[in-house]
Design a protein that fits this description.
about 425 residues; alpha+beta; BirA Bifunctional Protein, domain 2; Rossmann fold; 2 domains; eight-stranded mixed sheet; five-stranded mixed sheet; 16 strands; elongated; RNA-binding
RNA sequence: GCGGGCGUAGCCAAGUGGUUAAGGCAGUGGAUUGUGGUUCCACCAUUCGCCGGUUCAAUUCCGGUCGUCCGCCCCA
């Protein structure tokens, strides 16, 4: 049996990275008053069709959709925003006050060709801020994202920023873009020709050289922003500068999901190959209404955890959990006493690994050394007889005998010694 | 979904149309019946992702399939 294509096990050697990322994010999110929300992993298919947009690739060809035994069309969530918005509307979270700050973490599912940094089951941590159309909200979410990435020690990241304007701005721009591109239709790559009517904005970030050349002189969305959108975007940029968050304007940055308006941003890494985007997000003022709620402005983003962890592994950052004590014992009475001693020490807050092999002391010490433990606790026949234990510090080789009860009551001293 | 590379032990990795498939790391046992990080010895793939074909003979050649990686697409 094998894990199915596009899924993988996160093994104990790697899981420390995940815990570290989640703990760091949790702390920073809490500091900015975001509260966790846990929504179902599957939802009605219609939620994503309406929320994300039927014309998008995510909905059109990447969803895990099935009919359940009650004849309902169900889809494994391909992203987190639609579910959060659904919950916000259904559970009337707007009733709790003007602004709702939410975050989530968990698996998402998209049927794509797997590559490094792109699985079919992948994980995102994301944030949504409902109920404010203030540019300060946009900036706050970006700042939280950059703080998380920075706290993890990531370097070489670029924040790309754009505005896709309000709905009308986007419609006018779309028309102008199609008008500009249509005469060149034959020179565009096949994918882009296809997108010309379906989703022309996506042509802007084509990787095809010929297309890139044509697109270079295309009109810029920024010239099509209405007064409102322009004012909003200017304020976002000003506040980012005041926060000393550097960014790069990229008028070709478009988001793939239909719900985005105004600010769009991505944080990219140069160290990820084709899957460069670690964090993507923006404002989506139309989504809540689209899903049947009252018109509600909102901003949010999601971080791809697999990609983030690839970067952390490249940095060699590690946070392995290593025992304080490795317990070496031999002989029936000693083994029993060692078991009890180990458990009592754990209850006092020490990390204790018990050697279960029963093999020669030299072997047990060797394993103790490899475990990375600070000290070994040694019990043999003599110690069992006298109810004592040998405490051996592995770095210095210093060793002393004390009674088992002395060891247990020396908690404070031991903790000090372990921290040196 | 499209194009391409790769698939030998837990990990890294050499190799060949023909009796026993190098080596290193890790692991296990021993030298050392009670003291580690060094050293030495032994053991550790009847099998080369899987299925089929060619052949007297295939891990090696061919086809398919599965997986993975790179690019496209898409996206976090």
């Amino acid at each position: 049996m094998k894990a199915i294509r596009g899924t993988r096990d996160i093994l104990p050697d790697e899981v420390g990275y995940w815990q570290w990322v989640e703990a760091t994010a949790r702390e920073i999110l809490a500091a900015a008053a975001y509260r966790e929300i846990r929504t179902p992993i599957f939802e009605a298919t219609e939620l994503f069709e309406r929320g994300i947009g039927e014309a998008t690739d995510v909905v059109g060809k990447e969803m895990y959709t099935f009919v359940d035994r009650g004849d309902r069309s169900i889809t494994l969530r391909p992203e987190g925003t639609a579910g959060a918005a659904r919950s916000y509307i259904e559970k009337k979270l707007f009733a709790e006050g003007g602004v709702q700050r939410l975050w989530y973490v968990g698996p998402m599912f998209r049927y794509e060709r797997p590559q490094q940094g792109r699985q079919r089951q992948f994980h995102q941590i994301g944030l949504e801020l409902f109920g404010s159309d203030d540019p300060r909200a946009d900036v706050e979410t970006v700042a939280v994202a950059t703080d998380i990435l920075q706290a993890l020690g990531l370097k070489n990241l670029t924040l790309l920023l754009n505005s896709v304007g309000e709905k009308d701005d986007r419609a006018r721009y779309r028309q102008a873009l199609v008008e500009y591109l249509t005469p060149y239709k034959e020179e565009l790559d096949a994918d882009s020709q296809d997108r010309l009517d379906r989703n022309p904005l996506r042509i802007l970030d084509s990787k095809d050289e010929a297309t890139k050349k044509i697109v270079a002189d295309a009109p810029s969305i920024l010239d099509f922003l209405g007064d409102n959108a322009k004012r909003h975007f200017d304020r976002v940029q000003m506040l980012l500068s005041e926060l000393e968050i550097s960014y790069q304007l990229d008028s070709r940055l478009v988001r793939g999901l239909d719900y985005y308006t105004h600010t769009a941003f991505e944080i990219q890494s140069a160290d990820l190959g084709a899957q460069a985007t670690v964090c993507g997000g923006g404002r989506y003022d139309g989504l809540v209404e689209e899903l049947g709620g009252k018109p509600t402005p909102a901003v949010g983003w999601a971080i791809g955890l697999e990609r983030l962890i690839i970067l952390l592994q490249q940095l060699g950052e590690r946070s392995a959990i290593v025992p304080d004590f490795y317990v070496v014992s031999r002989g029936e009475a000693a083994e029993s006493q060692a078991t009890v001693l180990a458990q009592k020490l754990r209850r006092s807050g020490f990390k204790v690994e018990l050697d279960l092999s029963g093999s020669a002391f030299s072997k047990q010490f060797k394993r103790g050394d490899r475990s990375g433990a600070k000290a070994c606790l040694v019990l043999g026949d003599a110690e069992a007889e006298a109810k004592t234990v040998q405490l051996k510090w592995l770095q210095t080789g210093e060793q002393k005998t004390l009674t088992q009860s002395e060891l247990l009551s020396a908690e404070g001293e031991l903790k000090v010694a372990l921290n040196q």
